[in-house]
Write a structure and sequence with these properties.
Protein name: ABC transporter ATP-binding protein
Pfam families: ABC_tran (PF00005), DrrA1-3_C (PF13732)
Helix content: 25-40%
CATH superfamily of the largest domain: P-loop containing nucleotide triphosphate hydrolases
Largest sheet: 6 strands, mixed
CATH class of the largest domain: Alpha Beta
Number of strands: 14
Family: Belongs to the ABC transporter superfamily.
Distance between the termini: 35 Å
Keywords: ATP-binding, Nucleotide-binding, Transport
Shape: elongated
Organism: Prauserella flavalba
Strand order of the largest sheet: 6-7-8-3-9-10
Number of helices: 10
C-alpha cells in the first residue's frame, strides 16, 4: 500500500456470542474521503474504536503508513467520537488548547491552532463560553475543532454530521475536503447517504459486521438496472413491452417508466419511442446510493 494509507486488514471482534466484526477489510488512501455506512449495530463504531485502540481486535490488524498502529501513531489521528467527549464546564478556547497539548503540541502552537479552528468553524463569539452553554450544533463544531487542533495525519469521524444545520453541514464538508486535499486520509460514518454520495471518493457498506460493498458511488451503482421515463403522446398502449431487455414498470398519462436489464442499450428504447411519433421526455434515472444501500443491507438480512 502507498504511504499514509490507513489499512483495516481482516479485523474481527466478538462480544460474547455476538460477532461484531467479521474479517472487515478496507483501506483509506491519502487525500481520500471514505464514507463508512451501515445500519445501527452494523459495526461502524466498533471498527473506529479498534482503529483508535480504544478496543482491541480479536484478529486482524490496523496499519498506517505501512506499519501497525501504535500509541505513537494514535496521537497523529484526529478522532470525533459518536458519544461526544468534551469537558462541559471548560471554556471552548481553553479546552482546545488543552487537547492540542495532550497530543504533544507546544503551548504557543496549540493556542494559534485553537484560534484558527475557532475562527474557521464560526465559533469566535463562543470562544470564552463553557461548552455546556453552547447549542448542540456548536458543541459539534467544537468537537470537530478538537479532532483537528493538533494537525492530525488521519481523520476518523463517527457521525460528524448528525445534529448539524445545513450551514454547519456545508462548513464541515468544506473542512473535510480541505483536509483531504492536503493528503490526509479521512474516514467518516454517516446515515446521511445523499451527503456521503456527494462528498466521498469511495464508500464502504457494512452489514452485520461484514463489508458487503466497497467502491466509488459510480462503481457501486453501475451494475444496477437503469430506469427510464418516456413521454411519447402518440405511442399506443404496450408499445415498449415487446422490446428485448426492457420491463415496463408503469404506463399512464404521465408516460411510460421502463427498467433496462444490464447491457440493454437505451438508444433502442428511444428509437422505438420515436417510431410512434414525437418524444416529449426521455429521462434516465440512475439508482442513488440510498437505493443501493437499501438493497445491500436487506439482501440476505434474514439469513
Amino acid at each position: 500500500m502507498g504511504e499514509r494509507t490507513l489499512e483495516i486488514d481482516r479485523v474481527s471482534k466478538r462480544f460474547g456470542d455476538v460477532v461484531a466484526l467479521d474479517a472487515v477489510t478496507f483501506d483509506v488512501r491519502p487525500g481520500e474521503l471514505f464514507g463508512f455506512v451501515g445500519s445501527n449495530g452494523a459495526g461502524k463504531t466498533t471498527t473506529m474504536r479498534i482503529v483508535l485502540g480504544v478496543l482491541a481486535a480479536d484478529a486482524g490488524e490496523v496499519r498506517f503508513d505501512g506499519a501497525p498502529v501504535t500509541h505513537e501513531t494514535r496521537t497523529r489521528i484526529g478522532y470525533l467520537p459518536e458519544e461526544r467527549g468534551l469537558y462541559p464546564k471548560m471554556k471552548v478556547l481553553d479546552q482546545l488548547v488543552y487537547l492540542a497539548q495532550l497530543h504533544g503540541v507546544p503551548l504557543n502552537d496549540a493556542h494559534r491552532s485553537a484560534e484558527l479552528w475557532i475562527e474557521r468553524l464560526g465559533l469566535t463569539e463562543r470562544r470564552r463560553d463553557e461548552v455546556q452553554k453552547l447549542s448542540l450544533g456548536n458543541q459539534q463544531r467544537v468537537q470537530l475543532a478538537a479532532a483537528l487542533v493538533h494537525g492530525p495525519d488521519v481523520l476518523v469521524l463517527d457521525e460528524p454530521f448528525s445534529g448539524l444545520d445545513p450551514i454547519a453541514v456545508d462548513v464541515m464538508s468544506e473542512v473535510l475536503r480541505e483536509k483531504a486535499a492536503t493528503g490526509v486520509p479521512v474516514v467518516f460514518s454517516s446515515h446521511q447517504l445523499d451527503l456521503v454520495e456527494r462528498l466521498c471518493d469511495r464508500i464502504g457498506i457494512i452489514r452485520s459486521g461484514r463489508i458487503v460493498a466497497c467502491g466509488s458511488a459510480a462503481e457501486l451503482t453501475s451494475g444496477a438496472s437503469v430506469r427510464i421515463t418516456v413521454r411519447a403522446p402518440g405511442a399506443p398502449a404496450g408499445w415498449a413491452s415487446a422490446l428485448p431487455g426492457v420491463r415496463v414498470l408503469a404506463e399512464n398519462g404521465d408516460g411510460t417508466v421502463v427498467e433496462l436489464a444490464p447491457g440493454t442499450d437505451d438508444q433502442d428504447v428511444l428509437a422505438a419511442a420515436l417510431a410512434t411519433g414525437p418524444v416529449r421526455e426521455f429521462t434516465r434515472h440512475h439508482p442513488s446510493l440510498t437505493e443501493l444501500f437499501r438493497s445491500a443491507v436487506t439482501e440476505g438480512a434474514g439469513t
